[in-house]
Input
Amino acid sequence: MNNNAMNTADIDIDNLIKNMLSPECISNPYPVYKQLRTQPPVNGLLDYPPGTVPGVDTPYPAWVVTRYEDVDYVLRNPEIFSSEDPMQANSSAPSLMLVNHDKPRHTSLRNLAKMAFTPKRIHDDIVDRLRIDVNEIVDRSLNAEMDFMVEVAGVIPALVMTYLMGLPKEDYKLLVRWANAFMVSSDFTPEERQACNEELFHYFVANVEKRYQDIAAGIEVSDDLMTAFINAEYEGDVLTKQEVILFCITLVVAGAETTTYFIGNLLGVMLEDDSWFDKLKTDRKIIRPFMEECLRRDGPPQRLFRLVLQDCEISGQKIKAGDWVAFFMAAANHDESVFPDPEKFIIGRKNVSKHVTFGRGIHHCLGAPLARVEAEIMLNVILDKCDGIKGSITNSRRQSGGLLAYGFATLPLELVGKTA
Output
């Protein structure tokens, strides 16, 4: 018997599934996940993949998968659970590269992406520039109450996207808005979401087209990811211009918003328990374990969808080919049978690396190392420049616009500058 099994006769599952899209559940979904883990997968969730537009697109009823072993099963069997997203494909949104592809094309695309995603390009070439910018961001934020999500967390990841793709630095504000709209986790009207999707697409059509023209004209271009995608070749395979455009869009929507929430969640933990600031400042070696436990307990990505390609069973529940499955990585990360006391923030969990925040297998997030670097630099700069953090977690508010991401909408705090 599954370790989560219990007498659940008094749980109104249909109502529980319906209420998953309520602002209250979106801002704190973990109690609902706990109840759902007592059940095999339940059908009926009507939620939206990235890029789709609530009020315009029609969601498919999905099976809700929440237990760790079941989420792991979905992640490890891409031949059963397809990443091709018919709902997104029929929407106004650009399709996402890798995220919405299956083998064999996924293998080719991932190999080409690896040719572009070199450690030098996504780490060495941006670290010094990022450290300078983070220092400037923190300097101008010291000793005054601010919304950390607006002034710091919402700036850093979008700036990194401009470095990576050779875009004008000032365009980071556009990228923030477009990513928020695309990821269905902020309050936008349907018209605003559709307009943002179109603006995002046309922006990269124009920028990629210009880069192709410059390369063809022999004009020297920067050695960034956009150029790397254009020039990438693996065993004779290359990316089409359309695929280059969609790779750039994928990076922005997948990297800018989730990393923003990750950075905010790190500071949220420090407001919950102010002893963490001194512990981290004294021993920088625990920064990485601190980040990993935050990714497990408070990881921003909540769930993904899969299309079932063949009849199967999940925890005894028969699932038919053609069905739609929503699997919740965040619920798996709180499974008591894998992570004891999952609501507690515990540094040094021996199995913390088993968290599935960044996926697993062929769909493990290529941008995960970049997100960790951004967060680590930010934490070190704050610890270097500050004597503490003032604020109360009770004054914060989690985003409640969509169930795709867990993070703060507002996080008021004060970074207390060093006095000596």
About this structure: The chain is about 45% helix and 10% strand. The radius of gyration is 21 Å. The CA atoms of residues 123 and 347 lie 26 Å apart. The chain has one domain: 13-417.
